[in-house]
Amino acid sequence: MATTSQAPPEARTDTAGTSRLRRLHEAGAAPFFVLAALVVAVGAYDSSFFQAASLIALLEQAAPLTLLAVGEALVVLTGRIDLSNAGLASLAGVALAHGLGSWGPAAVALVVVGAALCGTLIGVIHITTQVPSFIITLGFLGIFAGLSLTTSRADSILVTDGYGSIEWIFYRIFGLPISYLLVLLAALALMAWMKALPIGRRIRAIGLNERAAAHSGIRTRGIVIGVFTASATLAGLAAVFQVARLQSAGATTSDALLLPAIAAVIVGGTAISGGIGGVGRTLCGALVIALLRVGLDLVGVNAAFQPILYGGIVIMAIAATANRRRGASVA
Fold first, then answer.
1. Which PANTHER family match (predicted)?
2. What b/e readout covers 37-55, taking b as 16+ CB neighbours within 10 angstroms?
3. What is the distance between the alpha carbons of residues 229 and 120, in angstroms, rounded to a whole number?
4. How far is 81 from 135, CA to CA, in rounded Å?
5. Which of 124, 274, 322, 324 sits most deeply, having the most CB atoms within 10 A of its CB?
6. Per-residue pLDDT tens for 245-267?
7. Checking phi first, is residue 329 left (phi over 0); if not, alpha (psi -120 to 50) or beta?
């Protein structure tokens, strides 16, 4: 009589634990638990964190990161990745710093539109050549870095003329930073748009099974180009926020936000293989990463070591929550 082999109890326990963690992650609850735990931990270490000034500063720091993370999440939902958006934000910041004196508020619109066109170009090249998005965006990251260094002459650009056009972004209304309120309104509008219109379901369908989505009549090419355009547009907006906050721009001003933005997407519950996640989760994930940065500074962790932690977070989050049964690769 045939016997059925069974996995050892330890293996079954590990599998069940991983499965529960994955379900919690996919339900979108995990980042909220992590955020609550971090708030308690940081507050216990330094009670001044709960003061209004500290919380407002946290939201102000989180604004550019959240914009980059939301744009990244849209791309990741289709089963792809954008490694160029932080580099594009640095380039856009340099362009804005140069243009504000001559063009004033119009420079903001020109920079955001220019960033959007760069995203469209990335999407078109990716779709037409069928080269993986990882390779295409990595190449554009190098292009944007070179252009940033060239146009800034590898130096920081102090913004004086025309700064009043964007200075108001970091004013406060009723004690709350306008910058984060704008980010929150944009994110809520995007969430409503994705929920109310078929585009949200189509983006997720592409991430879950692009071939099946195409056979069902979804115009996958246009949507993929669209998410890269959206990611680049939000990168342009992040550049405006960075220049408004720092009153300066440099060739690498936003480069350091690339890994934290990806970490925010993954920690927020968006599956790296696509199809699962959303903007709301990414908002929470961005707050987790912003709060983690504050906590690391409080305990005295050198900024040079912080990217190591972000990289570890990405690896552990993917390892713990990836659905290996799908076997899908990111294009």
1. ABC TRANSPORTER PERMEASE PROTEIN YPHD-RELATED (PTHR32196:SF21), ABC TRANSPORTER PERMEASE PROTEIN YPHD-RELATED-RELATED (PTHR32196)
2. ebbeebeeeeeebeeeebe
3. 5
4. 10
5. 274
6. 999 999 998 998 999 999 899 88
7. beta
